[in-house]
Amino acid sequence: MLDSHFRPDNFGILPNIYGFSSYALFVGLGITLGLSYYLLDARTRNVKGEGVIEIVSSGLIFGLIGSKIPLILEGGDLESILFGKSIVGGLVGGMLGVMLVKRILGIKLRMGNIIAPAVALGMAVGRIGCFLNGCCYGVECAFGFDFGDGLTRFPAQLAESGFHFIAFIILHKLRGKEMRPGILFKWYVISYFIFRFFIEFARVNERIWVGLTVYQLVSLAGIMFVIGRMMVERRKGVETYGK
């Protein structure tokens, strides 16, 4: 599963490192670093409560399921749907899955302020794997890299990696401040969806409606959903504390 991300044949800056898929290595490294950061931060701040395992597990499982939805909407074949992944769909699926499981099990714990920087760190490292692999490449431009077709293309993967690294630094600094529980993850998701909407214009993806890609449409839907969720929580008067 880790080494599957669509790219044309013979594409890639460095698709293999010592015989291993560079995409798999960096995605695995990103997951490891993100999870390690989360566990260390949670332990340092003595975060405890019933529902931790359920929240993390549901986020991962539903995130994986959600990562397939844009590929289905894009009309991908069975192989690309089974083995491909979409960050946009994964974030939406993970959020909805956590909300569903928490409601079913009656879990009140909110962990978004701790999880947000961990996710950003993992995304930042994982996108380096996309760059080396040659997937998620950008449009032809005057500067950039040749991923294998003789054209100079915009390094959209590195631009997104840079976004997530900056987000990680900001979220890391904010995570200990007094604020509404879970708000950091919502800010992160909204900012990423906005970024992704615009970076899509510099990526090579099929335009399916009014010149927009499926990832742009899902991003717009995600922005509206998260903002709506925040408005509902504000009306309910969610308590404030620094986690």
Automatic annotation (TrEMBL):
What EC number(s) does this enzyme carry?
2.-.-.-
Keyword tags: Cell membrane, Membrane, Transferase, Transmembrane, Transmembrane helix
Q: TM spans, by residue?
A: 20-40, 52-69, 81-101, 183-202, 208-227
GO molecular function per UniProt = transferase activity
Q: Coiled-coil regions in this chain? A: none
Taxonomy, superkingdom: Bacteria
Pfam family name, one: LGT
Q: What class of enzyme is it?
A: transferase
Answer whether the UniProt record assigns the keyword Nucleotide-binding to this protein: no
Family the UniProt entry places it in: Belongs to the Lgt family.
**Which PANTHER family did the record assign?**
PHOSPHATIDYLGLYCEROL--PROLIPOPROTEIN DIACYLGLYCERYL TRANSFERASE, PROLIPOPROTEIN DIACYLGLYCERYL TRANSFERASE
Under what name is this protein listed?
Phosphatidylglycerol:prolipoprotein diacylglycerol transferase
> What is the originating organism of this protein?
Youngiibacter multivorans
Q: What's the source species' lineage?
A: Bacteria, Bacillati, Bacillota, Clostridia, Eubacteriales
